């Protein structure tokens, strides 16, 4: 897939900041910059979402990567795994998110969060009362609200990237453990 919009030239300060954070300028930011207001609002909201603390960072990372794998956003999967490394999360587990159903490295809670992330992502969503109640009991109300809003935000980002033709930039190449590939077969109820 190729970019569906050409990259826009970013202001020098924003470009420098992006390079400081990630080592390169993210292509999704360059594409979105055709509307500076949309880009700035998206970056600001993304920063606020990143500051939420009611949910364990590992669970949020797994949810993010599960959505990215399901939607097919190689950019989000790539950068999500890179960020997991930078946040000192368990890379042996994070590397297996694209194949979480087959991998034996996840706890029951990890699996339930990734299943919930996929259920929220399905079109239409397939969240069940039992699924929600089970997570609510283990996470609590504040964390459940945060997790749900986080997954919704990740859906916005992943779907925008895929629609704009943004693909992996190789962020995860810096990780010691290679990122697993998603199995070729789809799972029932995981249509995006």
TrEMBL record:
PANTHER family from the UniProt entry: 4-CARBOXYMUCONOLACTONE DECARBOXYLASE FAMILY PROTEIN (AFU_ORTHOLOGUE AFUA_6G11590) (PTHR34846), CYTOPLASMIC PROTEIN (PTHR34846:SF10)
Listed name of the protein: Carboxymuconolactone decarboxylase family protein
Natural source organism: Actinacidiphila cocklensis
InterPro entries named among the record's database cross-references: AhpD-like (IPR029032)
